Automatic annotation (TrEMBL):
The keyword Ion transport does not apply. Residues 6-306 form the Tryptophan synthase beta chain-like PALP domain. The keyword Lyase applies. Belongs to the ACC deaminase/D-cysteine desulfhydrase family. It comes from Pseudonocardia parietis. Its cofactor is pyridoxal 5'-phosphate. Gene3D superfamilies: 3.40.50.1100. GO terms for molecular function: D-cysteine desulfhydrase activity. It is an enzyme of class 4 (lyase). Its EC number is 4.4.1.15. This is D-cysteine desulfhydrase. Keywords: Lyase, Pyridoxal phosphate. It holds the Pfam family PALP.
Length: 332
């Protein structure tokens, strides 16, 4: 049993993307609307934070120390979650490059977080978070240090619960059992939690991870390690690695969507009104479309993870996109 604070409005809805299917053909696509978790603009990150903060409160912590890149959705959500549960918050981010703060850093500051622009590169952030937490302990605080993305075995419990939430929606007739569940993989906690949770549901769905920031082999190892840790936290059956596969969805680089990713995002916007960001959503959705268009496996569920601040900020980039969007030879 894990401690939890309530942040999200759950269950999130499921959507049958029929207009999208009419354009694409292939297998039917469903969407799990974790862009609508209802806590700030946290998207998928509301789920791990319920358990990270639950654990911090149970252990009488008074300060959340975490970090992320300047566009991190997790940082904004973590600062807000700390605030509403009565903890202070320190956020480590990369040194300012002269561009104005985006919506996520502004939200973190509005929630009262102290920003430390000290890391040279995103990869350094977790070690700086650990050092800062040690400094805060020496100053008399009772901090909890949380790595980028909130991807720890405890954080992953949020997505293990989401697997049960989905199983309940399938049992209730809200959607057919997905043959494939497709989700973006960044720091890996969301996919890991799903993998751990699926093992304890009756669902036979396969999980398809679309790695947006790490080489697939590296992301694969991270997800497996976190899923095993998450199952141990829950006392749940070990995750079944055979129901999981990972694909490379990095495209031109972190945060930069390729032409096919963009076209897939424009199609989602113009058929179903879905907003997808370049870093996670567009890439993961293009991978989902690729799988559904290949066809023949059954319903494909795209797990929409949010990313609304960045999606809204970059809408202008696609205003002149071809109509219908050109999915290119890159997709079947
Ligand atoms: C919008 C969005 N989607 C997907 C992800 C990836 O989730 P995870 O880091 O759990 O792999 C993130 C991570 O921050 C995110 O902000």
């Amino acid at each position: 049993m894990s401690d939890r604070v309530r942040l999200a409005v759950l269950p999130t809805p499921v959507l049958s993307a029929e207009r999208l299917h009419a354009v694409l053909g292939g297998d039917p696509i469903w969407v799990k609307r974790d862009d609508l978790t209802g806590f700030g603009v946290a998207g998928n990150k509301a789920r791990p934070l319920e358990f990270l903060l639950g654990d911090a409160v149970r252990r009488s912590r008074d300060l959340l120390v975490t970090g992320g890149g300047p566009d991190s959705n997790f940082v904004a959500a973590a600062a807000l979650a700390a605030r509403v549960t009565g903890l202070g918050c320190d956020v480590v981010t990369t040194v300012a490059d002269g561009t104005p703060d985006g919506a996520n850093l502004q939200l973190a500051r509005a929630a009262g977080a102290r920003l430390h622009r000290v890391a040279e590169r995103r990869e350094q952030i977790d070690s700086v978070v650990a050092e800062l937490a040690a400094d805060r302990t020496a100053q008399g605080y009772r901090p909890v240090a949380v790595p980028r993305g909130g991807s720890t075995p405890i954080g992953a419990v949020g997505f293990a619960r989401a697997a049960h939430e989905l199983a309940d929606q399938v049992a209730g007739g809200l959607l057919p059992e997905p043959a494939v569940i497709a989700i973006a993989v960044g720091s890996g906690g969301s996919a890991a939690g799903l993998l751990a949770g699926l093992a304890a549901t009756g669902l036979r769905s396969r999980l398809l991870g679309l790695s947006v920031s790490r080489p697939p082999a590296e992301a694969d190892a991270v997800v497996r390690r976190l899923a095993t840790g998450c199952a141990a936290v829950l006392g749940a059956p070990a995750p079944d690695p055979d129901r999981w596969e990972i694909r490379d969805a990095r495209g031109p680089g972190f945060g930069v969507a390729g032409p096919t990713d963009r076209a897939a995002a424009v199609l989602a916007l113009r058929t179903e009104g879905l907003l997808l960001d370049d870093t996670y959503g567009a890439k993961a959705f293009a991978g989902t479309v690729r799988r559904a268009r290949t066809g023949g496996t059954g319903p494909v569920l795209y797990w929409h993870t949010g990313g609304l601040p960045s999606a809204v900020a970059h809408l202008g980039d696609t205003a002149d996109a071809a109509d219908p969007p050109d999915l290119g030879g890159d997709l079947p």
